[in-house]
Amino acid sequence: MPTSSAERPPQVLEVEQLVAGYGGAPIVHGVDVSVGAGEVATIIGPNGAGKSTLLKAITGRAEVLEGSVRLDGKDVTGRRGDQLARAGLGFVPQVNDVFGTLTVLENLEMGGYLLARKDVAPRVEEVLTAFPALCDMRTRRASKLSGGERKMLAIARVLMLRPNVIIFDEPTSNLAPVVARSVLEDQVRVLANSGSAVVLVEQRASEALTIGDWGYLLVAGRVSVSGPAAELLGRDDIGELFLGRETKPSPALNEISP
Amino acid sequence: MSLFVASLGFGLVTASILAIAAVGFTLQFGVTNILNLAFGDVMTASSFIGYIATTNGVGIWGAVALCALFGAVFSTLLNRLLYTPFVRHGTKLFGMIVVTIATSLIIQNTIQAIWGPSFFSLKFSPGGSYHIGSMVFTSSQFGIMAIAVASMLGVYTLLRYTKLGKAMRATACDPALARSCGIATDRVVDVGWLVSGALCGIAGIALAMNVTSFTSTTGGTFLIAIVAAAVLGGVGQAYGAMLGALTIGLSSEVAAGVIAPSYKQVVAFVVLVVVLLIRPQGILSEVAEAKEVAA
Prior knowledge:
The structure holds two protein chains of two kinds.
Chain A (H helix, E strand, L loop, with lengths): L10 E12 L2 E12 L3 E5 L6 H8 L4 E9 L2 E2 L5 H7 L1 E4 L11 H8 L5 H14 L1 H4 L11 H13 L5 E5 L7 H17 L3 E5 L3 H7 L2 E6 L2 E7 H6 L1 H7 L8 H6 L2
Helix pairs in contact in A: 3-6, 6-7
Chain B lengths: L1 H31 L6 H17 L4 H29 L4 H23 L13 E4 L2 E4 H23 L1 H11 L1 H6 L4 H26 L7 H16 L4 H21 L5 H15 L7 H9 L1
Antiparallel strand pairs in B: 1-2
Helix pairs in contact in B: 1-5, 1-6, 1-8, 1-9, 1-10, 2-3, 2-4, 2-8, 2-9, 3-8, 5-6, 5-8, 6-8, 9-10, 9-11, 10-11
C-alpha cells in the first residue's frame, strides 16, 4: 500500500476540480479524486456529503458544472453511461444494480452487450468461474435473488466487459455484516489485486479503509482529507467522527467538521 | 351451447385484434414509460390509410403491410417530435398522460376535420365462410388470427431470444443501468416505438376489417379494451397483454352472444375487476414491479 502520493501507481481515472449537482445547483465543489491500476480508492463521509452525487457525475448521471473527468488520459467529462462503458468504466450502483426482470444469464449477457456475439458465451463461463454460487442460478430471475447473490450478480455483470475502472456505490448497504465483509474482502479487494482500478464509496468506513489503498474524506461536497487509507484509519479525529471509535477531541476535528 | 361456441369464435377474432393492439400498447409503456393514450387514434389513422389504399386498388394484405409501415413511422415520429421533448423537459408519468390525451384529441379531430363524421368501410372481399363446429369464420378473419399468432410469436421471439429484444427488456427495467452496460438506449427506444407502432397499424386495419364500418372515433373507443387487456396482464408485460387480450376478448364476446350484446363491456370489465381484486399487480407483473422499485 502506498504511504505517499508519489508511491501511487499511474492514475487511470482522474477527477479534477469537479463541481457537480442537479438543476445548476452544485452539491460537489471542486473535488479531486483519482485511482490507479490495482488500487482501491475509498471515499468515506457523512450522509449528505455528496458521495453519491460525485459518483453520479463521474458516471454521467448528474450534471457536471465545472472540472474534468479523465479516463486513461482521455477526457470523458459528462459522457453518457453507454459511452463510458465503451471507454472502460464499470459502475455498480447502490440500488437497482441488476435487471430484476431478466434472468441471471440474461443479466450477464447484457453486461457483455458490447462484446462480439461469439465472445459472449465464453465470457459468461469465465465470469461464472469466479462466482460459482451463480452457476446453478442461470435461469433464475434476478429479482428472486438474495441481497448477497444480487450484489454478486451486479459485480459479475460489470466484469463481463473487463473494465479498467470499476466504481462501487455502497456495495454493502442492506447486507448482513458477514456478507458485507465477504463482498469487500473477497470481491472488491480481489478485483484490485487482479489489476483493476477500484473506486469504493462506503458507509462502513472502517472496513472500507481497511481494504483500501488510498482514502478520501468527503465533507459538505469537498475533499476534507486525503491520504493513505491506513493513515486515515489511524487518525483519532476521523475515527471518532466516522469510524465509531471513542477518543478525546483533537484540534483536527474542527478542521473537518462541516 | 351452439350459441356459446359461436360466440367463442367471435371472441377469438376480437381477442386476436386486441392482442395485437395490447401488446403494442404495453410494449410502448414497458420500453419508454409512456402510457400512450393516443394509441387508439393512431389505430384509427391506420384504418383510414387502409381505406385510402383499398379504395385505390391495393389488395387487403398489401394494405395491412402499408398500415404496419404507417403505424411504425407515425408512432416513432410522434415519440421523437412530441413526447421526447416533454420527457427531456422533465415531464413525469401523469404529465405525459395529459400530453398523450391532448395528442389523442388532436389526431381524432384532425381525422374528423378531413373525413367528417361519416361511416367508412374498407373496400375488400372478406372471402368465403368456413364452419368449425358452430363457429363461423371468413377468410379475412382467419387472416387476422394468423397475423395475431405470427405477431405474438414474433414479439415473443424478439424479446426472449434476440440481443435487441433483451436490450429492450433491460431498458424497460432500468434505462440508466442499461446505459451503463453500453446499451444505446435511445436507439433501443426507437426500435420499441417502431415495433409497437407497426402492431398499432396492423391492429387498426384489422379492427376496420372486422367491423362493418368505422369512424374517426373507432380506435379511441377500442382503447378502453386495450388498456383493460394491458392492465389485466400487468402493464408493461407483453406476454401478460396476450393473456389479458384473450381473457377480455373471449369474455366480452361470449357475454354478447349468450346474455345480450349490451352486456359485452359489462362482463369484460367485471372479469377485469375480479382478476385485479385477486391479483392487483396483473397476471404477469414483473415490469410493473421493477418500475415501482426504480421509482
